[in-house]
Write a structure and sequence with these properties.
Olfactory receptor 2D3; single chain; 190 residues; mainly alpha
């Protein structure tokens, strides 16, 4: 989405030649393959560990960091693999997204039209908000050293990136809609 916005704002006259159906399919395929690869590696490293005793996960759902806390053997290799997969699935995409938005902001600053700036910022602002919420909480959950106990904060962060971001998505994107803004103003009594 950020690449699409980058091309639309920074190279508007070339948009239709750059963002072809083939490019969109390639971007989707890369996303799917990288997601499948990361899930496979995470599962392989997590599920090969021995688990003994009472295997009750102190978490809302079963995810690799929660499983590692139950392992009865050294989890260093699995932690390194999870961290490396976090770089692939979290840090690499968020870096590309931030570079895209940096270029968009740099281009918009030189735009003469105040209305054009506002339109670009309102279009990109909603996507950037969702990106910050999702990737920020995901990076906090996966890109830090592992401890043997699951804190309540870890549970809240996991719920935030898995449930709350999805629930907030429609609200964040619909705030760009004039009808929704009008309805909110009526509701607020303005």
């Amino acid at each position: 989405m950020s690449y699409d916005r980058y091309v639309a704002v920074c190279k508007p006259l070339h948009y239709s030649t750059i963002m072809t159906q083939r490019v969109c399919v390639q971007l989707a395929i890369v996303s799917w393959i990288s997601g499948a690869f990361v899930c496979s590696v995470d599962s392989a490293f997590t599920l090969c560990l021995p688990y003994q005793g009472q295997n009750v996960i102190n978490h809302y759902f079963c995810e690799p960091p929660a499983l590692l806390k139950l392992a009865s053997a050294d989890t260093y290799d699995a932690e390194v693999a999870l961290f490396a997969m976090g770089v692939i699935i979290l840090l690499a995409p968020v870096s590309l997204i931030l570079v895209s938005y940096w270029n968009i902001i740099s281009t918009v600053i030189w735009t003469q039209s105040g209305e054009g700036r506002l339109k670009v910022f309102s279009t990109c602002g909603s996507h950037l908000t969702v990106v910050v919420l999702y990737y920020g909480s995901g990076i906090f959950a996966y890109m830090r050293p592992n401890s043997k106990t699951m804190s309540e904060k870890d549970k809240v962060i996991s719920v935030f990136y898995s449930v709350m971001t999805s629930m907030l998505n429609p609200m964040i994107y619909s705030l760009r809609n004039k009808d929704v803004k009008g309805a909110l103003r009526k509701l607020a009594g303005r």
